[in-house]
């Protein structure tokens, strides 16, 4: 017994005519007749007396049809509840954000989202990419704001924007006075990376055409987890950095950071959810709000090259080593 079969018998009771009932149900008349026969055979009771003109339900059929109407009302109520739930902007949502983005975008997003959805409560968790992907899959968080594509078939990615990378240089760097930065071979071995941010590191290595991290100093090794710490090391002349553009939002261009020549390397930033996440309106509003928070320099449609991370040999090798 199916919901659709119940709809058929209710339509037949209303029209008392196979052709008109079939038209209402958007099914062929033979198809409706077969489904009625299948239902009657399944329950072992005749629902309609076909010898009557117009068609008339049997005594048992009358009771079955009334019960079918109640079931359909409940089914429709469930459908309406689900639609309302998808479209509501209330309740609590856990949002995970990659640590290379959270300090720069979240203050802008939180302020704007309060006006868009004042009845929503957001719990924001900052983490690395690998942990965010796992947390979305297991349900520990509802949504992740992170770099994509992930290459994970169990996740749905809703692209929000493309964030350019910029070169971060110390004041005595040979290209400190240049208008745009072009990769300098001498910078490659000086590249500073972040500890445990393997997808981010994979992107930087790709930009620099490096297969793996190099060794910069014999006396010191850096376990860096903050872009701000990384930038301070560059200011002290202790390395070269490539950072997301939002991280220099409050710095004047031409001082320590330089835009790349086109095509500019960018990372794709998306809202990532599990394949059964259903709150479409919430995603649309979050997407729109984040976009409206962005500076015009990021919204500009310039020539760029999207830098992937999930297929990086460095990323695959590092993650496999951690699992071993």
Automatic annotation (TrEMBL):
It holds the Pfam family HTH_1. Gene3D superfamilies: Periplasmic binding protein-like II (3.40.190.10), Winged helix-like DNA-binding domain superfamily/Winged helix DNA-binding domain (1.10.10.10). One of its GO terms (molecular function) is DNA binding. Keywords: Activator, DNA-binding, Transcription, Transcription regulation. Residues 1-58 form the HTH lysR-type domain. Transmembrane segments: none annotated. InterPro entries: LysR_HTH_N, LysR_subst-bd, WH-like_DNA-bd_sf, WH_DNA-bd_sf. GO terms for cellular component: protein-DNA complex. The keyword Nuclease does not apply. Belongs to the LysR transcriptional regulatory family. PANTHER family: HYDROGEN PEROXIDE-INDUCIBLE GENES ACTIVATOR, TRANSCRIPTIONAL DUAL REGULATOR HCAR-RELATED. This is LysR family transcriptional regulator. It comes from Flavobacterium subsaxonicum WB 4.1-42 = DSM 21790.
